[in-house]
Amino acid sequence: MDDSFWAFAALVIFLALVWYVKAPAKVGKTLDDRAARIRDEIEEARELKEEAKQQLAEYQRRCQEAEQEAKDIVAAAKREAALLLEDANRKNEEYVVRRTAMAETKIAQAESDAVAEVRASAVDIAISAAAKVLADRNSGSEAGRFIDESIGEVRKRLN
């Protein structure tokens, strides 16, 4: 009985003990449970990956929609600004035309008033000149009445 025999006997006892406590079944069950848990984790990881892909696609779609909406808003703002500028230019031109017309009207009125004033002055000067000429020609009592009638008639005709 040498050491090899005792090593062999210990091995046989050890194997019998392992078989008695059903260690291979427990080890197999533990390995099967672990394999099932790993499969579940892999499946869950696949599902999370698919969900992440879907969320990424949704994010990219929303990003493109937001960019397009921003471009539309900028284009609308540019159109509105162009319309406002065009409207302001049109109103400015209308204002200038109105002010020019008002100025021309005022100038025409002032011209008309000046012409009327000059005419009135000319009439007064003509009447006084005619009165002086007639007074110098007719120096009698009857002449005064004639002069007054002539002056009145000249005033009627010139005004």
TrEMBL record:
Topology with respect to the bilayer: Single-pass membrane protein
Transmembrane segments: 6-21
Leader peptide range in chain numbering: none
Coiled-coil boundaries: 28-94
Pfam families, per database record: ATP-synt_B
Keywords (A to Z) from UniProt: ATP synthesis, Cell membrane, CF(0), Coiled coil, Hydrogen ion transport, Ion transport, Membrane, Transmembrane, Transmembrane helix, Transport
Subcellular location, record wording: Cell inner membrane; Cell membrane
Protein purpose: Component of the F(0) channel, it forms part of the peripheral stalk, linking F(1) to F(0). The b'-subunit is a diverged and duplicated form of b found in plants and photosynthetic bacteria. F(1)F(0) ATP synthase produces ATP from ADP in the presence of a proton or sodium gradient. F-type ATPases consist of two structural domains, F(1) containing the extramembraneous catalytic core and F(0) containing the membrane proton channel, linked together by a central stalk and a peripheral stalk. During catalysis, ATP synthesis in the catalytic domain of F(1) is coupled via a rotary mechanism of the central stalk subunits to proton translocation.
Protein name (Swiss-Prot/TrEMBL): ATP synthase subunit b
